[in-house]
Amino acid sequence: MTEETEQRGKAVPALVRAKKILDALSAGGKPKGVSELARMLDLPKSTVHGLCHTLVDLGLMMRVGPNQFAVGPHVLSWANAFEGQSDLTQEFMRIADANDLISKQAINLSILTGREVMYVACRRGTDPLGVSFRPGVRLPAPFTATGKAMMSTMPRAEVEALFADGWPEPWTRRSVPDLKTLLRELDETRERGYSIDDGQLRDAMVCFGAAVFGASDDRAIAGIAIGLLSGEVNEASTSLVSHAVQSLAQKLSHRLGGNRH
User: Fold this and answer.
1) Phi, then psi, of 169 in degrees rounded to 5
2) What mean pLDDT do residues 234-247 have?
3) Residue 23 pLDDT grade (very low, low, confident, very high; cuts 50, 70, 90)
């Protein structure tokens, strides 16, 4: 191994810590202080303090109160660049906009980042679901339809490893309570061909999700979900929406070179 190759394989500690700080600020949607970030990330307070001020200077974070920080506006330029350059998001919007079966419901696209899903695109609907699917929003993967759809394509051991350090705090009384229950739901997802978030993220919302595959076909590269208000859920709407989300995921997979569906 050459020195250049060896160096290329090493992570830069300061960059890793900065990413952890930005991830922590993105989770939960609330500003956080240096002390809280230091506790969450098990880092020295002085290290977090220095990185926070550097990230503020770079526009990646901003001060929102006394010793409180939030994600900064410069991050939006990266999100816009990703959306503009990604075949995934471009093809998703083309397919979602052309769909004439589902008009009132929001259709969203997300990717898996560790134990969370991050939303990268959304075709907005007219029904108010009470949850924002803006690009960049992160939510616990076990409670989301897209998260379960994507994790259902992963080996069991990898799913278990994601939650080896603990389980996310529940969002509702119906949120998946533990890993054992999640693994059972992933088995059901594989058998059905689509996933269900039945009020696990928001009491009045039910989402149906399906996995999107790329050319490698070994596991999902993204997930699509369609949300309904719980009062709209019945046998007919479940059949319509579950079919629609699988059809959309299949079309997007084919556009990206995947043939697993």
Assistant:
1) -65, 140
2) 92
3) confident
Pairing of strands 220-229, 205-213: antiparallel
CA distance 61 to 21: 10
The answer to whether 248 touches 107, Cβ cutoff 8 Å, is yes
Strands 107-113 and 220-229, sheet pairing:
antiparallel
How far, rounded to the nearest angstrom, does the alpha carbon of residue 131 sit from its chain's CA centroid?
13
- For residue 181, give both structure tokens: 């229950």
Instruction: Name, in order, each residue with C-beta under 8 angstroms of 21's C-beta and a sequence gap of 6 or more.
Output: 37, 41, 48, 51, 52, 55, 61
Q: Helix/strand/coil (H, E, C) string of the chain? A: CCHHHHHHCCCCHHHHHHHHHHHHHHCCCCCEEHHHHHHHHCCCHHHHHHHHHHHHHCCCEEEEECCEEEECCHHHHHHHHHHHHCHHHHHHHHHHHHCCCCCCCCEEEEEEECCEEEEEEEECCCCCCCCCCCCCCEEEHHHCHHHHHHHCCCCHHHHHHHCCCCCCCCCCCCCCCCHHHHHHHHHHHHHHCCEEEECCCCCCEEEEEEEEECCCCCCEEEEEEEEEEHHHCCHHHHHHHHHHHHHHHHHHHHHCCCCCC
113 dihedral zone (left: phi>0; alpha: psi -120 to 50; beta): beta
- Whether residue 77 is predicted with pLDDT greater than 80 in this model: the reply is no
Which domains occur in the chain, in start order?
Answer: 3-72 (1.10.10.10), 77-255 (3.30.450.40)
Q: Give CA–CA dist 214/166, Å, rounded.
A: 30
pLDDT at 137: 84
Closest CA to 215 of 185, 176, 180, 257: 257
